[in-house]
Amino acid sequence: MSSASTISSICFEQGCWFKRERMIRVSDKRVKRLASPSSLSFRVSANSSVKSEKDIRIGLLGASGYTGAEIVRLLANHPHFGVTLMTADRKAGQSMESVFPHLRAQKLPRLISVKDADFSTVDAVFCCLPHGTTQEIIKGLPTALKIVDLSADFRLRDISEYEEWYGQPHQAVELQKEVVYGLTELSREDIKKARLVANPGCYPTSIQLPLVPLLKANLIKHENIIIDAKSGVSGAGRGAKEANLYSEIAEGISSYGVTRHRHVPEIEQGLSDVAQSKVTVSFTPHLMPMIRGMQSTIYVEMASGITTKNLYQQLRTSYEDEEFVKVLDEGAVPRTHNVRGSNYCFMNVFPDRIPGRAIIISVIDNLVKGASGQALQNLNIMLGFPETTGLLHQPVFP
Amino acid sequence: MSSASTISSICFEQGCWFKRERMIRVSDKRVKRLASPSSLSFRVSANSSVKSEKDIRIGLLGASGYTGAEIVRLLANHPHFGVTLMTADRKAGQSMESVFPHLRAQKLPRLISVKDADFSTVDAVFCCLPHGTTQEIIKGLPTALKIVDLSADFRLRDISEYEEWYGQPHQAVELQKEVVYGLTELSREDIKKARLVANPGCYPTSIQLPLVPLLKANLIKHENIIIDAKSGVSGAGRGAKEANLYSEIAEGISSYGVTRHRHVPEIEQGLSDVAQSKVTVSFTPHLMPMIRGMQSTIYVEMASGITTKNLYQQLRTSYEDEEFVKVLDEGAVPRTHNVRGSNYCFMNVFPDRIPGRAIIISVIDNLVKGASGQALQNLNIMLGFPETTGLLHQPVFP
Amino acid sequence: MSSASTISSICFEQGCWFKRERMIRVSDKRVKRLASPSSLSFRVSANSSVKSEKDIRIGLLGASGYTGAEIVRLLANHPHFGVTLMTADRKAGQSMESVFPHLRAQKLPRLISVKDADFSTVDAVFCCLPHGTTQEIIKGLPTALKIVDLSADFRLRDISEYEEWYGQPHQAVELQKEVVYGLTELSREDIKKARLVANPGCYPTSIQLPLVPLLKANLIKHENIIIDAKSGVSGAGRGAKEANLYSEIAEGISSYGVTRHRHVPEIEQGLSDVAQSKVTVSFTPHLMPMIRGMQSTIYVEMASGITTKNLYQQLRTSYEDEEFVKVLDEGAVPRTHNVRGSNYCFMNVFPDRIPGRAIIISVIDNLVKGASGQALQNLNIMLGFPETTGLLHQPVFP
Amino acid sequence: MSSASTISSICFEQGCWFKRERMIRVSDKRVKRLASPSSLSFRVSANSSVKSEKDIRIGLLGASGYTGAEIVRLLANHPHFGVTLMTADRKAGQSMESVFPHLRAQKLPRLISVKDADFSTVDAVFCCLPHGTTQEIIKGLPTALKIVDLSADFRLRDISEYEEWYGQPHQAVELQKEVVYGLTELSREDIKKARLVANPGCYPTSIQLPLVPLLKANLIKHENIIIDAKSGVSGAGRGAKEANLYSEIAEGISSYGVTRHRHVPEIEQGLSDVAQSKVTVSFTPHLMPMIRGMQSTIYVEMASGITTKNLYQQLRTSYEDEEFVKVLDEGAVPRTHNVRGSNYCFMNVFPDRIPGRAIIISVIDNLVKGASGQALQNLNIMLGFPETTGLLHQPVFP
């Protein structure tokens, strides 16, 4: 213990410690951030008690889905966050290993029903519950908790829009007002102060990251933004549906929810905010025969006099200090293969044959930067840790 | 002999026989079209001499590639066309079975070098040679042969455009003038009279089939046609390239040849012809982790006052009598899975969120309607057979 | 109609019609076998009434599963069998196109509930219902019908064994006595006379085809037959199960039902019959990330003094006249890719490093030779048609 | 050299080293091992000089293949090992990012030719060169270097056997004598003292891990060990070969190198050593349509009186303290999905239907525990670091 704090203080005095990582201030008593020796090493807490190992106690609601499992995977190597509470109503009583055998090497609490959860024992919560059920549950959580919600339930500021797209009235109208939309690179300052972060959808993440800086800089027109998006199947979750069977998905592709996908209002909200006028996009998602990965191919009209070089330069500048957003070298094509399993977003800009137009391509892993990775990035910030903590897994290729 | 012609005459007299299949006239002596009994059954000629079995003798140049093999597969059940000559320079001397074991049940001639081929022994030729090498070879073929060329070498009417995109001067300028571009449904009458047909590329087929009728009817604008196309890997052929290894392709997607794909001039030629003015398209192909299949998602601006209903109705009308082009029921999404292994093109039209725009989706199997199937469809027509002959394989799903 | 019978008689008088196909005798009045003109061409009956088109009227029970769809695909090009009745209880009232859009080009009857089916309007039935439900239903069918049952319900002669493995008493004990087990190549003579054929399972087909001739000839020992089998996922059907989701299956493999798979008693029944003593096998199935295809890798001990050459020669001899079973050239490895979509079984024998042992590999498409293809092969025989009718589709590769 | 051995000896003197990351003290200047703050955090060295960042300088020979890239991926999060030298003859002059774009976030040296490498600047070397070329090169390396060779060139103790299977005489006979075969869990003590470790092949790793303890305990017979192994395609490397194209591999499986695979002598060497008599195995590898993953399904005869329970108990005991080898709960089937991207080996034992026999299943990721991960595990040990350092990535699922 003392050794660790010694290291810490040395490092901070020397001003060298977390070079590119923001300063950490811990006001909350629960967040002791001891940087205890064991927490500094990159390892799994298989041999010791769950409770004592790491300093921040994490509750995970909805642990039996893919995003829940992905958070557990990422936290395995997080030096400070330890999962001490896991809920999964339909699998209550089971071990996580029986639901996700790949997590067998980790020491994890048994799954319980959310109604049996004691939230006084955790410091923060990832909420991976389905859309529509989340507002009620989060409304009931202790206000001292930091919460990152991965569902869509708090993403839309306009509660009437929520009702329109999700077919039911918003259940937590008051709470909605304090929500911070957690597209990390674009809202970092607000996230620092947030108690409840609505984690963005995967499509909106891959689309807003390139478009927001370009709209903000007035480099592209607000009209006729056409987004042809492609996603791996894991985005559809682990529910047993005929449409997602291997035999139905492999070796073929198809569009779905053409013009009616629920991510549309979220995308338009983000673009309209920065454009300062209502932006209506053409958005066509396609289901790909792959587990992970998402590409948005975006066709835009450039503002008068603007070239793809200007767009490229803007994106380079916007993201030059970012660990997780990489604007590739000119001409290099982003491929989903190259971000698989990681929190990176790769993007690039290409000239179109049609004069005045440009093509923007961005790729992410839908389960990481498009869900659980960004959620962890946000919670790191909310709790005063370097945002890259536990997230520097490199992409798995091939 | 007599039995077969008897059948034919009975049938035609009754006017019922080949209901939707066009009249057959056989002027060429070589093309006897005997419809001998054995040729009428749906079977493989495994036990009898290749030469005697079927009445039209087919030469296949470049038999060791995927499109060559696919032609052999389709001809296995063609009652009139029998492959009697196969060339494959690098595999000369081998049996087709050793190159493509799945064709083992068929009786096929041994592969020879193209320079050793005796073209006086065949009635028609499918040319599956690589781009750039084909012009010279076809120039040297006997003029009595019917030829369908699957390469890009004769697709561009404008030979300077050929030179620009393929980096070498056209080697058969005179021949180019008599070439008929073989998008079957759109050029059927010309194909009937053709001696040399340039078989369309896969992307151009999937794109022109929906767009040509709409442009012809002035239902869509010529500007800002944006094509986001997705293809299976078999389109890249059987050449050993790192980029096409399983480990590089599976579980991920990527764009390639952004705005510079060689199918662009072919697409623009076709659209410009019908639009009667130069059409420049935005065309971005994507490589998908699947063997077969191609989808073009096309974003268009409609002409003033036109609705997606008008577009839909036009396509329904244009293709109502076609066996191989199906406009799906309203709202039904075409999926590549549903045309796999078959000569069908499925398409549909969808409203866009952006007013005045529409989304068109068309799917084909790139190796069948996008290559070998359409080639056979064309040769059937050139030789006076019902164009569906040997092509009514239903899609293989799942 | 009259035209059709004219043709038939012409053809049969000439005695030339189906060269390599066995003679056809039609005793049953229901089986008119008109060979109407339309049935002679290789095409889909899209434009005419279902009832009048083909001479044998087929009922398909359980049409909404993969094996049902596969039968429809195969029958599309069958000159004599036309589907006129289709049941699917949970999809009753829907069109087949809405359940399987790839079959859209065919004219098919609407799906009805089995209880609403009028079996007096059909000549033969394919039964693709789930295990356990089939005995009752088949018991209730008119005895004039020819029936091929693709479920496991009638495969086990020993009804106590059925009860042991399927956990419920046999519901049609009397009927079981007249059942013929339909491994076509091994039971052809019995199938000719059968009214009710139990179509073999996919694993038993791929295993018995190589092993039965070797056991019969006493070339291998009865002990220690070890079968490591690999199957594509389509064998698990279209039911929505978490375990068969794309994200659970792709990019990985796993064994299942180790030593307890329900195909075990069927395999052992077949081998014991020919061995004339109880054979107990080691059988481990593995689930592969592929839709179609099945490989059995079989490890055997040879009888004293026997070599792999003897085994090879025996298999060559056994199958030399078979269209659908191919013993490859020495050393050539059977690959599932090379039988995909077809009714072929490819096999071969290899020496083992351990003296006295041999390795046998056989591959099939589990949905064709392993299910619907063999079912059609059987019904062809039962109704006096050449067994290859409608089955000579060549494998789809790549 | 001295640095490394110093570390080692210090550590061993204390006798406490590896329980799971014991204290580290370092005397060598290069090897400052300060546990400097930056090195303790789990992050990528993107912004600082490669040389100064980490204390152990790693050379990577053959960096342009999959195993080379995998080592780079794993080292990204290794607190002590930094890659400072990378060779790739055919890609010399290129950046690693241009060869493997997924590694773009890391700061890496430029690729150079092996002949231009200055080995005095590194402390240890991973050698990922092709079989047959490696002996010469390693022979020429400074003797002070610690080396882990991932090729097969030093795996066979018997140099005549090497010549027999690889078709060329051994080029470094003297060196062979000091080689330690690096199956970590089974040779940990020898690896600690080794200078040159021959990293095991992927198949031999997945096979020896379960079989060696069982043979050592005399629980299984030496005869008739039958191994049906299944591998993902990445094991074949990144070389452009027709056989490994996506279109040739996807959606199908096949055996290869039946009884003649080059891993046979390595497997038999390991089993014979522990059996203390020559063991000859039946070994049939199969190529699976997946990138990563390997399963060995092993059929064994148990010693007299032994049950599968005994086998299970033996394996549990043998591996109870191991981080990377997990014997699953009884009845749980190991799946390759559940170790993907990780250094884990999952295994289990099942009863066979045939009395006296058992079935053993083990799964690994062929690129991690089967290659680069185990190589890192070995180098960690050779240099006195906790063997799990940098290796506790959890499996990526789905």
Automatic annotation (TrEMBL), chains A, B, C, D:
EC class name: oxidoreductase
EC number of the protein: 1.2.1.38
Pathways involved: Amino-acid biosynthesis; L-arginine biosynthesis; N(2)-acetyl-L-ornithine from L-glutamate: step 3/4
InterPro entries: AGPR, AGPR_AS, AGPR_dimerisation_dom, AGPR_type-1, NAD(P)-bd_dom_sf, Semialdehyde_DH_NAD-bd
Keyword NADP: yes
UniProt-annotated catalytic positions: C202
Keyword vocabulary terms for this entry: Amino-acid biosynthesis, Arginine biosynthesis, NADP, Oxidoreductase
Name of the featured protein: Probable N-acetyl-gamma-glutamyl-phosphate reductase, chloroplastic
